[in-house]
Specification:
The protein is of the alpha/beta class. It has 2 domains: about 375 residues, no CATH class; about 200 residues, SGNH hydrolase (Rossmann fold, 3-Layer(aba) Sandwich). The chain is about 60% helix and about 10% strand. The protein contains 28 helices and 16 strands. Strands 1-3-2-6-9-11 form a 6-stranded mixed β-sheet, with helices on both faces. It has a 4-stranded antiparallel β-sheet with strand order 5-4-7-8. Helix 2 crosses helix 12, helix 4 packs antiparallel against helix 16 and helix 20 crosses helix 28. The chain is globular and about 85 Å long. This is Acyltransferase. Keywords: Acyltransferase, Membrane, Transferase, Transmembrane, Transmembrane helix.
Length: about 650
């Protein structure tokens, strides 16, 4: 897992978490079974006291250091707030819930900037510790009462948990919703119910080991090395674009279970290998190493963004830091203070409250721009999101299925309406189009969806078609063609043409394309079909050409969230970026050509805003104290208001 986070060529290294879950399930179950065998019951207070002393102090130390580093290295434009929310969640063993709320996906770029992203797995483990001993005790008690076999009852309960959890995991992983869950695939990754089966598999192995007959040396070797092969395959072959956990998580989970089974064979080579002192020493500090490595990687990358080796260096440095933390901080706390109720409560309160207070300060001060007038003035321009986002007009719901009341801005009754449709690069014009509609006394309707241009194409990511987008495209286009003659404003980011992770597919011929020149051709054809359908229905179509997009370090789009607080305090203008228009045009050449070809073939009007946004052939995020862009892909709402005149002219000649 550390190797994966460090950027080493282990594309499936993220399955280390699944390995960790299985091992945790095995270790805790064995501990509890020994407790049941020795005392006939689980001493819950003692169990939870030990867990608190083992887990909380080290976590609190890392959280405290992370909060302090966030204050000086992260940006008040989102990064500090996200870190603070994750930090409060991690302090309360709810990091997975907090990260579900503030991120779209574990593998997206926004998530990578949160130094506490990795704590989601610790939260899942801690939630497992809260519930699992009770379930095991109930199963053991039921088995003793009904069958006089406590382990048998515990096995049945464990098997039921595994089956139910695995079903939930599969259901959510493949995009099926449940009540109160609007991001099912993200919930599948982060939630305890969808991960419990992995702990349960480890628990079943422990139950087998408790009463089963050990395997022969030959059988143990075969089982163990088969498991090792599965783990190697998972770590090297599963891409981070795979549906995960999904069904593919079975590979590392079963592999880990087989390694544990094989490793318990007396005298086996695998067992001897796992018992070697270096591996056991790393195992002792593995928890601390895991805690420290990701914050160091994130903060190191913030300080040295262009150094490709900094992530590996940070991960390596985290190991001696983990050893020092384990030796001089964690172990003294675990050995001192006893297991008395008061000592445990006191330790828990301090470990939870101190980080929460620090992260509360980070969140509050970041939200108020740390009391800096210049940062506050910048925040007033780059923080506001377009009207459609605030009013619920920007969603994956197809237009005919939406309640458009809040998304309709009334003009002259009975007059021709103006529809603004497309992806977020269409949504960014909401203020401009609404202002133009008011000037022309025309009704404006907003209906956009993130990452989903209104174009007759299928978008595939990681080999999976974006079904939500396709439904939005088809149903929305059909609905628009059924409306009375109106003006339809369309815009799109068009980044999919150059994005190697996106495949475009023609829904008519089934032809797919992943290479830019082929995608350009499919884009032009798909856009032409959409434009022609709308024009043939009696609408006046205005296609806004893709605006210049501003790149940042390592081809990431510029964002205020990349600007550290000290930089902003020195000069907010240093947070901005400037890109020559010529460079932008070269990057966007395919997208612009596809748009021109489609518009010309369909005979619709185009609007080019390059000269307005990039005067003097230079594209800047900020010009004379006015923030033109709110991030590298979108203009600010202030700039959108400033474009109202351009849209008024363009729409004035339409019906």
């Amino acid at each position: 897992m550390v190797a994966y986070h460090a950027g080493l060529p282990v594309q499936g290294g993220f399955v280390g978490v699944d390995v960790f879950f299985v091992i945790s399930g095995f270790v805790i179950t064995m501990l509890l079974l020994r407790e049941l065998a020795a005392h006939g019951r689980i001493r819950f207070r003692r169990f939870y006291a030990r867990r608190i002393r083992r887990l909380l102090p080290a976590l609190a130390l890392v959280l405290t250091v992370t909060a302090l580093l966030s204050m000086v290295l992260q940006s008040p434009f989102g990064s500090q707030q996200d870190t603070a929310v994750a930090g409060v969640g991690a302090s309360m063993w709810l990091a997975n819930v907090a990260l579900y709320l503030v991120t779209g996906d574990y593998f997206d770029n926004a998530a990578e900037t949160i130094p506490l992203l990795h704590t989601w797995s610790l939260a899942v483990e801690e939630q497992f510790y809260l519930v699992f001993p009770v379930l095991l005790a109930v199963g053991y008690w039921w088995g003793r009462r009904k069958q006089r076999r406590g382990v048998g009852g515990a096995t049945l309960v464990m098997a039921a948990v595994v089956a139910a959890s695995f079903a939930i995991s599969l259901w959510l992983s493949y995009g099926h919703g449940l009540p109160f869950i609007d991001k099912p695939s993200t919930a599948a990754f982060y939630s305890a119910p969808s991960r419990a089966w992995e702990f349960g598999i480890g628990g079943l192995v422990a139950l087998w080991a408790d009463r089963g007959t050990p395997l022969s040396r030959a059988a143990g070797a075969a089982v163990g090395w088969t498991g090792a092969a599965l783990l190697l395959a998972a770590a090297t072959l599963i891409p981070d674009t795979a549906v995960f956990p999904g069904s593919v998580a079975v590979v590392p989970v079963v592999g880990t279970a087989l390694v544990i089974v094989g490793g318990r064979t007396e005298g086996g080579a695998l067992g001897r290998l796992l018992a070697r002192r270096p591996l056991q020493a790393i195992g002792d500090v593995s928890y601390s190493w895991y805690l420290w490595h990701w914050p160091l990687i994130v903060f190191a990358h913030l300080v040295w963004p262009s150094d490709s080796g900094v992530t590996v260096a940070a991960a390596v440095i985290a190991l001696p830091l983990a050893w020092a933390s384990y030796t001089y901080f964690e172990q003294p706390i675990r050995r001192g203070g006893g297991l008395s109720a008061w000592a445990t409560v006191r330790l828990a309160v301090v470990s939870i409250v101190v980080p929460i207070l620090l992260f509360g300060v980070v969140y509050a001060e970041a939200t108020r721009s740390w009391g800096n007038p210049a940062i506050a003035a910048m925040a007033e321009q780059v923080r506001p999101v377009p009207t459609g986002y605030r009013e619920g007009c920007h969603s994956s719901t197809p237009v005919p299925a939406r309640n458009l009341t809040r998304c309709t801005f009334e003009g002259r009754p009975g007059g021709p309406r103006v529809f603004l449709v497309g992806d977020s690069n269409a949504g960014q014009y909401a203020e401009a189009v609404i202002d133009a509609g008011r000037a022309l006394d025309r009704t404006v309707v907003l209906a956009t969806m993130s990452g989903c241009p209104l174009i007759d194409l299928v978008f595939e990511r990681a080999g999976r078609p974006d079904d939500d987008c396709r439904i939005f495209q088809e149903q929305s286009t059909r609905w628009l063609t059924e409306q009375a003659g109106a003006s339809i404003v369309i815009a799109a980011a068009n980044e999919a043409i150059n994005d190697p992770e996106v495949t475009l597919r023609d829904p008519l011929t089934g032809e797919g394309a992943s290479e830019p020149s082929a995608k350009q051709r499919l884009w032009a054809a798909g856009l032409e079909r959409t434009l022609t359908a709308l024009k043939s229905a009696g609408h006046a179509v205005l296609m806004v050409n893709v605006i210049p997009h501003l790149g940042g370090d390592q081809q990431r789009w510029w964002s205020p969230s990349q600007c550290a607080l000290p930089t902003l305090r020195d000069s907010v203008s240093d947070c901005g970026v400037e890109v020559p228009l010529q460079d932008v045009d070269e990057t966007q050449a395919r997208a612009r050509t596809a748009e021109h070809d489609a518009a010309a073939s369909a005979g619709v009007q185009e609007m080019d805003l390059r000269a307005v946004l990039c005067p003097d052939s230079s594209c800047r995020s900020v010009r004379d104290g006015v923030w033109i862009y709110r991030d590298g892909l979108h203009i600010s709402t202030r700039q959108s208001h400033a474009l109202a005149g351009e849209f008024e002219i363009a729409l004035g000649g339409n019906p």
